[in-house]
């Protein structure tokens, strides 16, 4: 009965003439990508498949019976490697290695070789099974990769203009090139294993800038920054930095690559240019400010000087033309009016000179003095007797200051003069002096008409007169000068007031250290 090959019942009955061993031989013989052959117990070739012929170049008829040493390099044969490999296979059961093997034509290939000791049922060695695969292409690729890596390593290590090095995942230096040594001053043995925050100024370390940069590089893949960095000797340089996260093919984070370039010269040039532009801007603003001041001065001269001059001219002409007809009382009254107007003009000119003085720059002394005692002296020196008697001075504790005594006297005199000028009748004026933190505050309070909130921002500007309608003379420079003198000593000045409720002007001077 003939059964078809697709019939399972019949296929199970089909047998290779030589049984299972015949199938195995057929299978082995048909493999071309692997050299599969057997050696007898003495190491001579006993079988040979198509893959072996393809790999080694020997036809079966030419190689069977010859020693497996034929496949080894001459130097290895001389060193006894073929015999040693078989001995290891006998001892361990097998040996697996990679190495160079020779073909029939004398060429070599890189082989992956597995030699297995073959034993009979009684445990006696009967031979060896050898499986060989040609890995020359992989070897060539590995060699090219290694050469590429070595060239890259040599390139990185020889670059002198860039610091190129690797950090581990925690930020510790893992490699160091010539450029890094030149730029930062550390030799490799001095810096490898240390945290890269050693390159950052103390302020950057305190605010954890190095860690922030690593976090950003880890999250985004890379980060760029510029800033001051430190060399081994403590000197600083302006650095352009690129930090790149390094990841393996499976995404595992392996560390960071860091490339640093010294841009100090560019930074200096940019700063110099910025300084020139800033100075030009300041000069232009200074010119505009001087132009505004010139305009304001001209307005004051045209208005505030012209008015008293006109009165003086009228009074003087009246006295000159009618002297004989005027009685003594009238003459005296007109002369007093002339004196009053000249006094106003003198104060105006003095104030204008003061503005020019403070605009031209101030020299500030730093001496220790008691500002409470200075307040007493200022009341006596700056105010006439009736006005001086209206002032009450309140001193709380030690009020020694470190500042300029003459400038502070001028500030106090200005505030006291204004206070008695605007306070009604015999109402009191208070000077309160107290230490607040590292400053001493001096507050001058009057019970005058006060200053509306919407006008207070103008008080300390040059030539600004908030209430010219109150009938009190002035040029609007006193508080501007007071502010300038206060700030020159490192203090501040401000006002608290509201309409019809008086005003308190307060300024500060740095307290003397105990």
Layout of strands and helices, then pairs:
Layout: H1 8-11, H2 20-30, E1 35-40, H3 50-56, H4 60-63, H5 74-78, H6 81-92, E2 94-102, E3 108-119, E4 125-134, H7 136-158, E5 162-167, H8 178-184, H9 188-191, H10 202-206, H11 209-220, E6 222-230, E7 236-247, E8 253-262, H12 264-322, H13 328-359, E9 367-370, H14 371-382, H15 385-388, E10 391-396, E11 400-403, H16 405-422, E12 429-436, E13 439-446, H17 478-488, E14 493-497, E15 503-510
Parallel strand pairs: 10-12
Antiparallel strand pairs: 1-4, 2-3, 3-4, 5-8, 6-7, 7-8, 9-11, 12-13, 13-15, 14-15
Helix pairs in contact: 12-13, 13-17, 14-16, 16-17
Characteristics of this structure?
514 residues, alpha+beta, Beta-Lactamase, Helix Hairpins, 17 helices, 15 strands, rod-shaped, disordered N terminus
Describe this structure in words.
This protein has helices at 8-11, 20-30, 50-56, 60-63, 74-78, 81-92, 136-158, 178-184, 188-191, 202-206, 209-220, 264-322, 328-359, 371-382, 385-388, 405-422, 478-488; strands at residues 35-40, 94-102, 108-119, 125-134, 162-167, 222-230, 236-247, 253-262, 367-370, 391-396, 400-403, 429-436, 439-446, 493-497, 503-510. By secondary structure, it is an alpha+beta fold. The protein has four domains: 16-134, PAS domain (Beta-Lactamase, 2-Layer Sandwich), CATH 3.30.450; 159-262, Beta-Lactamase (2-Layer Sandwich); 269-359, Helix Hairpins, CATH 1.10.287.130; 367-510, Heat Shock Protein 90 (2-Layer Sandwich). Strand 7 and strand 8 form a beta hairpin.
């Amino acid at each position: 009965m003939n059964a078809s090959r697709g019939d399972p019942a019949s296929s199970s009955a089909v047998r290779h003439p030589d049984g299972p061993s015949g199938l195995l031989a057929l299978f082995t013989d048909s493999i071309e990508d692997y050299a599969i052959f057997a050696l007898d117990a003495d190491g001579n070739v006993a079988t040979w498949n198509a893959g072996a012929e393809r790999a080694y170049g020997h036809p079966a008829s030419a190689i069977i019976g010859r020693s497996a040493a034929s496949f080894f390099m001459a130097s290895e044969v001389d060193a006894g490697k073929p015999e040693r490999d078989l001995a290891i296979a006998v001892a361990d059961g097998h040996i697996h290695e990679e190495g160079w093997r020779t073909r029939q034509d004398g060429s070599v290939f890189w082989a992956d070789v597995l030699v297995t000791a073959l034993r009979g049922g009684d445990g006696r060695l009967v031979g060896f099974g050898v499986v060989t695969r040609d890995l020359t292409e992989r070897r060539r690729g590995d060699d090219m990769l290694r050469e590429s890596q070595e060239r890259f390593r040599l390139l990185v290590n020889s670059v002198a203009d860039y610091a190129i090095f690797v950090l581990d995942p925690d930020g510790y230096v893992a490699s160091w090139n010539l450029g890094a040594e030149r730029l930062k001053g550390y030799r490799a043995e001095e810096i490898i294993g240390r945290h890269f925050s050693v390159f950052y100024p103390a302020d950057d370390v305190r605010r954890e800038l190095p860690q922030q940069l690593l976090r950003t590089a880890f999250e985004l893949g890379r980060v760029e920054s510029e800033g001051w960095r430190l060399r081994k000797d403590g000197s600083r340089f302006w650095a352009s930095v690129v930090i790149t996260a390094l990841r393996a093919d499976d995404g595992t984070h392996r560390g960071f690559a860091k490339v640093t370039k010294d841009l100090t010269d560019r930074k200096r040039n940019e700063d110099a240019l910025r300084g020139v532009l800033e100075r030009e801007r300041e000069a232009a603003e200074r010119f505009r400010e001087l132009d505004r001041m010139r305009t304001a001065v001209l307005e004051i001269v045209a208005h505030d000087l012209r008015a008293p001059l006109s009165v003086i001219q009228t009074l003087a002409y009246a006295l000159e033309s009618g002297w004989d007809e005027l009685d003594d009382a009238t003459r005296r009254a007109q002369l007093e009016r002339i004196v009053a107007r000249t006094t106003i003009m003198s104060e105006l000119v003095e104030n204008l000179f003061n503005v020019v003085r403070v605009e031209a720059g101030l020299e500030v002394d730093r001496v220790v003095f008691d500002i409470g005692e200075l307040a007493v002296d200022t009341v006596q020196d700056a105010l006439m007797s009736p006005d001086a008697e209206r002032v009450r001075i309140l001193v709380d504790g030690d009020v020694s200051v470190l500042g300029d005594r003459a400038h502070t006297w001028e500030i106090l005199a200005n505030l006291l003069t204004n206070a008695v000028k605007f306070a009604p009748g015999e109402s009191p004026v208070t000077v309160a002096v107290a230490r607040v933190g590292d400053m001493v505050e001096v507050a001058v309070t009057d019970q005058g008409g006060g200053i509306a909130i919407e006008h207070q921002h103008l008080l300390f500007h040059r030539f600004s007169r908030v209430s010219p309608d109150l009938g009190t003379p002035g040029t609007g420079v006193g508080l501007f000068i007071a502010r300038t003198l206060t700030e020159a000593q490192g203090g501040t000045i401000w006002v608290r007031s509201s309409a019809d409720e008086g005003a308190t002007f307060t300024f500060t001077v740095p307290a003397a250290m105990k």
